[in-house]
Amino acid sequence: MQIHETAFAVSTYRSYHEDVSKDIYAKLWNNPATDALIPHILKSVSEHEAILHSLRNRFFYESMTSFFEKNNGGTLVNFGSGFSMYQFSFSKNVSTVEIDKKDIIDYKKEKIENWTREGKLPSRDIQYIAIDFNHSSVENIVDFLRPMIKTEPIFILIEGVFFFLDRKTTDKLFKVFSALQKPGDLVGCVTYLPEVENTEVYQRLLHYFDSNNDTNDSFNHQTIPHSYFQNIDQYALLEKTDEFELSKIYAPNCTIKDKTEILNETMYVLQKM
Ligand SMILES: C[S@@+](CC[C@H](N)C(=O)[O-])C[C@H]1O[C@@H](n2cnc3c(N)ncnc32)[C@H](O)[C@@H]1O
Q1: Number of domains making up the chain
Q2: CA–CA separation, 122 vs 115, rounded Å?
Q3: Which letter, b or e, does each residue of 205-233 get, where b requires 16 or more Cβ atoms within 10 Å of its Cβ?
Q4: Is the CB of 163 under 6 A from ligand 1?
Q5: Domain boundaries, position 84
Q6: Is ligand 1 within 6 A of the CB of residue 159?
Q7: Is this prediction's pTM over 0.85?
Q8: With a 6 A CB cut-off, is 80 part of the ligand 1 pocket?
Q9: Distance 74 CA to ligand 1 centre (A)
Q10: Which one is predicted more confidently, 216 or 239?
């Protein structure tokens, strides 16, 4: 499985549960290749993946909506944005900077511009930039991004990405965030905690990636402990939750009985001090 296929899968999951994810545009990305892939993932890893990704989207949808409403606009800087579509649900006074690998960015930019012209999407101020986080320095990333951010405050989102990075690159990105943001700005991020490694479902996920890595598209599988987020230079931990807790609020009828039976990701909101 290549990394861009994970971005298509996540987007398709959100389209299955629009009432939970609040992403009414995710379905634009649905395609036969991803539709063919998903039943095998749900069967061999976990049947709950679609609702969990929809819950994750809902959490950040709510956090960002309230941040931008309170501040009457601002900029969403989305690191590893994949096919996420938050910007079309926010008001016009929110600008967005999307950062991902070149193949994703080129494809997304073209599609979004076409769909906007055809009236399938509302018009929004979006800038696209191709950066590989593993191969760029803090200074390079900051120099590229700073001129693109025209409205403050800034909400930085990095969702579904840390798993694919190593710790060195993760540390580097927090230095980038700190250089771009001012006090009061927020970072929303997602990780697996190390205790998830002990669950059978996580081992099935790793096995799935190992046995379906047909192209040698190499990536890490990082987990990060809670203490990491308590000790980031210049950031205070504002909020922490996980998908199991979110399921009780936004999907009370789903059949998850215990957090160890699901690929339970933890969400953090951090505030620049
Ligand atoms: C599972 S997808 C999540 C996409 C999106 N954030 C979402 O939640 O829908 C992971 C994304 O991270 C991006 N990514 C992974 N490693 C990266 C790297 N080294 N540099 C830039 N982007 C990367 C992938 O291209 C992909 O779009």
Answers
A1: 1
A2: 9
A3: beebbeeeeeeeeebeebbbeeebbeebe
A4: no
A5: 3-272
A6: yes
A7: yes
A8: yes
A9: 23
A10: 239
